[in-house]
Hints:
Largest sheet: 7 strands, antiparallel
Bound molecules: 2-acetamido-2-deoxy-beta-D-glucopyranose
CATH topology of the largest domain: Jelly Rolls
Mean pLDDT: 91
Strand content: over 45%
Distance between the termini: 118 Å
Number of strands: 31
CATH class of the largest domain: Mainly Beta
Structural class: mainly beta
Helix content: under 10%
Number of domains: 3
Low-confidence stretches: 1-15, 461-479
Amino acid sequence: MNFIFSFLIIAILNTLGLGVDVTCPTTAITQNTPTGAFPAGGSSIFPANYNCTIQFQIPVGQVVRINITNNFFFDTNDTLTIQDSASTLYSLFVIDKLFYLPATTGKIMISTQTNTSSFYFKWQYIPVTNFNRVLNPTGTVLALNLTAGSYYRFTSTRGQVAFHTGSLSGYSDSALSQIYVYDGADLNANYIGNLKVFTDMENVSIGRSLTLVNFYGSSVPSYGIANDYAAISNYDDYDFFVLRSDMDFFRHLISKQGVESAMTLYAISSPETYISTIKFLNPNVTGQEVRVKPATPTENYGDLLTYNVRDFTDDQLPQQILTKTFTVTLSQCDVYIGARSRPSIDWHQANPGRSGWIYSPSMWNPTAVITDPYYTYFNSTNPVKFVFDIQSVKIGKPGEALKVEVGSLTSSSVSVVFNSTATNTGEKAAHGTFMKTNFTGTSNLSSFAMKFSIEVCRISGKIFILEFFRMRWRLQQNL
Ligand SMILES: *[C@@H]1O[C@H](CO)[C@@H](O)[C@H](O)[C@H]1NC(C)=O
Ligand SMILES: *[C@@H]1O[C@H](CO)[C@@H](O)[C@H](O)[C@H]1NC(C)=O
Ligand SMILES: *[C@@H]1O[C@H](CO)[C@@H](O)[C@H](O)[C@H]1NC(C)=O
Ligand SMILES: *[C@@H]1O[C@H](CO)[C@@H](O)[C@H](O)[C@H]1NC(C)=O
Ligand SMILES: *[C@@H]1O[C@H](CO)[C@@H](O)[C@H](O)[C@H]1NC(C)=O
Ligand SMILES: *[C@@H]1O[C@H](CO)[C@@H](O)[C@H](O)[C@H]1NC(C)=O
Ligand SMILES: *[C@@H]1O[C@H](CO)[C@@H](O)[C@H](O)[C@H]1NC(C)=O
Ligand SMILES: *[C@@H]1O[C@H](CO)[C@@H](O)[C@H](O)[C@H]1NC(C)=O
Ligand SMILES: *[C@@H]1O[C@H](CO)[C@@H](O)[C@H](O)[C@H]1NC(C)=O
Ligand SMILES: *[C@@H]1O[C@H](CO)[C@@H](O)[C@H](O)[C@H]1NC(C)=O
Ligand SMILES: *[C@@H]1O[C@H](CO)[C@@H](O)[C@H](O)[C@H]1NC(C)=O
């Protein structure tokens, strides 16, 4: 009886791994042991008050893959903590977890208070210099679901590289910690932290390149933007946000007196976005300004939209923006800004008082070789006065044209057509219930910029409408 009982105890101890040697290694693990496990004898319950740090030395160009198994839960004081070579600590609770230790050092720290937790991990040294290289200039926006087995180099022509991220949810994305940042041109460069820490600390590269990699091949639901640090370092604050068509953007933004801050917005699905709200919280403070320009700060294009607290009214919104990437600059503002990244019914409404700008897609996408033809309209139930001022029209290819047509369903319409390049064509006006703008220019050499406003109709009768329009138009043409 006693014998059988003892035998049973030993059998149970063995299945629990209690016979396993858990002595803490005194020397660092190196590439001389390219694979191994701790405890070497297999998974084991560790004794109470155990405290051990296992160190790794990792050559440049390699990572150590750690495959961890443990049995503990959130409510224990027994811990397994990993430290990467940028001194970031990772606490692991989840059973069966992979971790990649980047060069050149790593630590795994096991500490217990109870005798109830089991730990086990296997390691493997893996060379990573044969990864595929993906080259990107600064000014690139990309989805951060990076392909495993590839590294992503961002290079600046002007100096240091800054990197910012925006999550799909709008909240902090913890998966960013699985993307690793190297301060240089490839994975032989100095590891400087995971992307979560790197962006939280607002770190930048030392040289002209920054390299990102995701050894885990995990899905990271965020987008990232690489900028020349020189293009954003003058801003007091710089942020990057993702715009989704199923979620309105709305932020309270502040830039201090005498300084500017900026944000780049990237619309992941819709090629058209509308600014829906600008609300200056201290409307009596002069000098506040919100400006919008195409692309990222790195490209440094001119502003296409400027809203100064002095003359801004809600009638200037919604304002169409025909690009996925644009940058909003705030000059000493305290302001709410809202945007919607999807077609807008409000944009088309010809309410008296409205004003704004119509820019061709090529103005918003200066590096696109070809853009889509452009068409938009404003309409209303009752006649209104459409006033428009085509400040520039460029026709890159014979046959392309800009046509602006004003009319109503019950009368014939009037239109102006530009089939050659012109600037400062002068303000024109016509009455009707719709204004259609149709631009067939698609090359990056073709563009137009047009200011419009919609006013109360002060005359009636369609003849007057046409004559009024023609008179003004002829007048302009004869100048
Ligand atoms: C484990 O040992 C290290 C080094 O001796 C010490 O710094 C650390 O505080 C100890 N941890 C625990 C939980 O006792
Ligand atoms: C990690 O180790 C566990 C148990 O040893 C094994 O089942 C699993 O397949 C390993 N995972 C990977 C990704 O190697
Ligand atoms: C963890 O430690 C704290 C302080 O030492 C103690 O109050 C707490 O009860 C412990 N928790 C568990 C689950 O042992
Ligand atoms: C585990 O600890 C408890 C009390 O803390 C003790 O009674 C028990 O004998 C220990 N078990 C082993 C296998 O050391
Ligand atoms: C990343 O996500 C984007 C958008 O969903 C998709 O187009 C792209 O193919 C994905 N890339 C990878 C490597 O999964
Ligand atoms: C990141 O920024 C922090 C805070 O400015 C600084 O202490 C740290 O040294 C920087 N790290 C790197 C790798 O440059
Ligand atoms: C702004 O100025 C106007 C006119 O001077 C005044 O009536 C209004 O109360 C001021 N508003 C605020 C918020 O100070
Ligand atoms: C237009 O596209 C061509 C071809 O890609 C390019 O060489 C040229 O620089 C572009 N022009 C502008 C004004 O961006
Ligand atoms: C404006 O035009 C659209 C599309 O043609 C139509 O659905 C809408 O009813 C019109 N609105 C008015 C006020 O006429
Ligand atoms: C522009 O239109 C005028 C008048 O319709 C026509 O005579 C001319 O040939 C057109 N020019 C081009 C470049 O299409
Ligand atoms: C714009 O003008 C072109 C050329 O006249 C025409 O083919 C096209 O149908 C027009 N687009 C719209 C939406 O009216």
